[in-house]
Specification:
Structural class: alpha/beta
Distance between the termini: 21 Å
Radius of gyration: 14 Å
CATH topology: Rossmann fold
CATH class: Alpha Beta
Number of helices: 6
Number of strands: 5
Largest sheet: 5 strands, parallel
Number of domains: 1
Strand content: 5-15%
Helix content: 40-55%
Shape: globular
Strand order of the largest sheet: 3-2-1-4-5
């Protein structure tokens, strides 16, 4: 499965800890992430992570486009509920809307992320692999 990692600045350490704890599960999948989050996860875990641009430089839009083209199967998007940046909130709402529209499982906090990763490990999300993949043109 193609799994994307995204984390607000105050949640990057939590993302690193999550990926470290579930490295054995994540290692069986293709990982991508926005620039800083991906670099930090790759350095901490040794997992290969394909990098998008930084969120503020278009990384969020790259993720959103790949959701619409069915190229992402799951997203871990650790957001900071205390972030006061209205643009950040708008980008997250757009990504969540696309996940809802295209049936992409998404976790925005540690509790939901653990439920998704454990389901992934059990094979509960194998139905995503049966969906036809579109390619960008």
């Amino acid at each position: 499965m193609n799994i994307t990692l995204m984390a607000d600045d105050k949640k990057k350490e939590l993302m690193i800890q999550f990926c470290t704890a579930y490295k054995s599960v994540l290692s069986r999948h293709t990982l991508s992430a926005t620039a800083t989050t991906g670099r930090l996860v790759a350095e901490a875990t040794g997992l290969p992570v394909n990098l998008f641009l930084a969120k503020n430089q278009g990384g969020h839009q790259q993720v959103d486009a790949r959701i619409a083209y069915n190229e992402i199967d799951m997203i871990f998007l650790f957001s900071d509920p205390n972030n006061t940046d209205p643009w950040a909130e708008q980008r997250i709402v757009q990504t969540l809307h696309l996940c809802d529209s295209y049936n992409v499982p998404v976790a925005t906090n540690l509790a939901s992320a653990e439920m998704l990763i454990l389901g992934l490990d059990r094979g509960d999300l194998d139905w995503r692999e049966m969906l036809p993949k579109k390619t960008l043109r």
